[in-house]
Amino acid sequence: MKINSNTRLLFRLQQVIFYIFLVIAIFVLAKFSIQTDHHWDWTKNNRNTLSETTQSFLAQLDEQVTIQVFVSPNNEYQPVIKTLLNRYQVHSTQLDIHYIDPDFAPNLVRELNIQQQGEILISKGEQQQHLFDLSEQSLTNGLITVARQQEQWLVFIEGHGERSPLNQANFNLSTWGQQLKQKGFKLQGLNLVEHSQIPANAAAVIIASPERPWLAGEVEIIKDYIEQGGNLLWLTEPSDNPFLLVLAEQLAIEFVAGTVMDPNAQLLGIDDPQFVLITEYAQHPIQLISDSVTIFPQAVAMETSSFASDWQHSPLLITQQNVWSETSNIEPNNFDIESDSSGPLNLGYLITRLTDGAQEQRIAVIGDGDFLSNTYIGNAANLELGIAVINWLVHDDSFIAIPVKTRSDSQLELSRLESLVIGLGFLVVLPTLLLTIGLSIWWYRRRR
């Protein structure tokens, strides 16, 4: 081919066009690499992927939420926190995330009462939530707490010796109450003699183990509240349920005579059979958060009444087969087939029905209040169950539907044959193959 000035010009023009298209291609690829994020989670239980509940909540989040992470740049928790928060940012643009080095912001640390490295503060307006662990469950629940459109008020009935969420005595519920406040709930005590009606903004009413009889007018106030579709948590005891039998009739339940005895308590080193262990729960969202043992000291069992009603009853707390309800004080550790009721027994019911406005009314009746008292709430999963019941009552189902993901595929299990094949492969087959290839190359080069 004869090269002249025209040919050289065409070659140069071709090179210019090539480099222009090359630059354009690099720019387009760079842009797509920044704006596009694809990943695959090959773990057995998808532990590196957010649950459907979290993704659904993030898709509905329509207001900006600020997340402040107080962690030093070289802290071991920083990459873990960033990895978790990056997963959230993929599903929502409403998260404004800031990483703050607490060593260089002491005034802000004091102002916001930051207590530890890796602490996360979620805020929206005046709502704030402190997080101290790095689980998806805690982070999503914190986001839901601050994103609530309205305050959730829990009204505790008082005036009859009930357990109080504001009193720190062992009998009372201050530990549980403090946890509810951290979840964004507002607590209010209410004496029905002084106030003749339930506040209209009450998300749920709580009757916590009254010790003294109620006046007839007070019972009518609660009955009217239930009739109008109000949500209720009733914690009762073997000794106090006669005070509110009218309320039990309205809810179509009956209490089993006596106190529940459970010989299985010895498995936890508890010699008193009045401590009941619950390991089975109803097929209900509450089950997802209470997958451990819960302990109920001195509980009363209950069952549904025989007459028809519009209530739907779901047994929540089901005892073991060898449990019974003891009615005798003479030999309390022996089952009497003539007077005692044998297990399995129900210590709690979830009761629902549809109101006129097609809203589901929710009521929980649990035959023990001690399990949430300051004395026993730290045992097993008592606290988790207490929080989950409240979330269910106020229709915050998204709080209790996020399972904790664990590493289910962290171990490699091989059979003896598989181990033998892998061992021989590395010790015999692979060295023999490399030696054969080496000798073949040597022989080929020698013949040349």
Mind explaining what this structure looks like?
It is a single chain. The chain is α/β, with parallel strands linked by helices and 448 residues long. It has helices spanning 5-35, 52-60, 78-91, 106-111, 136-147, 174-182, 216-227, 245-250, 285-289, 382-393, 416-447; strands at residues 65-70, 95-100, 119-124, 127-131, 152-158, 185-191, 202-208, 232-235, 253-255, 259-261, 275-278, 280-281, 294-297, 302-304, 312-318, 324-326, 341-342, 346-354, 360-366. Helix content is 33%, strand content 21%. The strands form five sheets. Strands 6-5-7-8-19-18-15-12 form an eight-stranded mixed β-sheet, covered by helices on one side. A four-stranded mixed β-sheet has the order 2-1-3-4, covered by helices on one side.
Q: Which residues sit in consecutive blocks of at least 5 with pLDDT less than 50?
A: none
Largest sheet: 8 strands, mixed
- CATH homologous superfamily of the largest domain - what is it? Class I glutamine amidotransferase (GATase) domain
Distance between the termini: 38 Å
Helix content: 25-40%
Question: Remind me, CATH topology of the largest domain?
Answer: Rossmann fold
Order of the strands making up the biggest sheet: 6-5-7-8-19-18-15-12
**Alpha carbon gyration radius:** 32 Å
Order of helices and strands: HHEHEHEEHEHEEHEHEEEEHEEEEEEEHH
What's the CATH class label of the largest domain? Alpha Beta
Q: From the coordinates shown, what is the CATH architecture of the largest domain?
A: 3-Layer(aba) Sandwich
Number of domains: 2
Question: Strand fraction band?
Answer: 15-25%
Please report the total strand number as a whole number: 19
The secondary-structure class comes to: alpha/beta
Number of helical runs? 11
Which word captures the global form? Answer: elongated
